[in-house]
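Thread amino acids onto this structure.
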């Protein structure tokens, strides 16, 4: 496996991981909204901590709502952070792939120039003094 193939494989893997992280973010947002709605529908009075509705009674609906809200918030934060990490990772692999392609292209161009110079030198008639 060449270095170029390795970089292409790692970029594809990082793209897959980035997509999975963003799907995790979407699942977290669905859980968060579900938890907020559950808490608002079940509780008679709601206390708010920042933007999270909390009811401190021990009814199953309120506990479920709080659990969904907190797990959704955690998934959203983790999914976004991991998505950004893999996006930057993929960008690094693509930059390295581009630079390796640039180096390879320069090597091929130098070879062609040397071959053309050798052909011109061979085709040039030599003038010798009698």
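Threaded sequence (130 positions):
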């Amino acid at each position: 496996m060449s270095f170029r193939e390795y970089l292409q494989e790692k970029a594809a893997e990082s793209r897959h991981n980035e997509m999975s992280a963003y799907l995790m973010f979407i699942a977290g947002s669905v859980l968060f909204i579900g938890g907020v709605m559950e808490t608002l529908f079940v509780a008679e009075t709601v206390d708010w901590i920042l933007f999270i509705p909390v009811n401190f009674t021990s009814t199953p609906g309120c506990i479920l709502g709080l659990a969904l809200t907190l797990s959704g918030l955690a998934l959203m934060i983790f999914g976004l952070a991991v998505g950004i990490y893999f996006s930057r990772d993929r960008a690094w692999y693509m930059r390295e792939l581009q630079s390796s392609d640039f180096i390879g292209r320069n090597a091929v161009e130098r070879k062609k120039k040397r071959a053309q110079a050798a052909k011109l030198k061979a085709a040039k008639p030599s003038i010798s003094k009698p």
